[in-house]
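Lest this sound abstract, we think one record worth quoting, the chain in one-letter code, the fold tokenised, each line plainly labelled:

>
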Amino acid sequence: MLVQIHTDKNIEGGSRFSEFFSNEIKNELARFDEIVTRIEVHVSDENGNKTTPNDKKCVIEARVEKKQPIAVTATSDSPEKAFYEALEKIQRVLDSTLDKIKEH
């Protein structure tokens, strides 16, 4: 599974940031290796440098073999919280997708 991390200009997304998020995804989504070919994570600050509640957004898109891409979005007051909320959401969606694949 290929993991790509993208940040906007308002989020400090150095190599440690990318490496940490990539490792978390690989650990949490390892059971989906057989169906997921790529995961893309997009982390952004919706309001630039202004501090407002829930202005950090994380979109996680999973590319599933022979299916349309699946995307989830989460917002929070920090990039890390938004990431973990989105990670939980994508796990639930992938679980149900895997169940549907196994039924057919």
About this structure: The beta strands are 2-7, 36-45, 56-64, 70-76. The chain has a mean pLDDT of 90. The domain at 2-103 is CATH 3.30.160.100 (Double Stranded RNA Binding Domain).
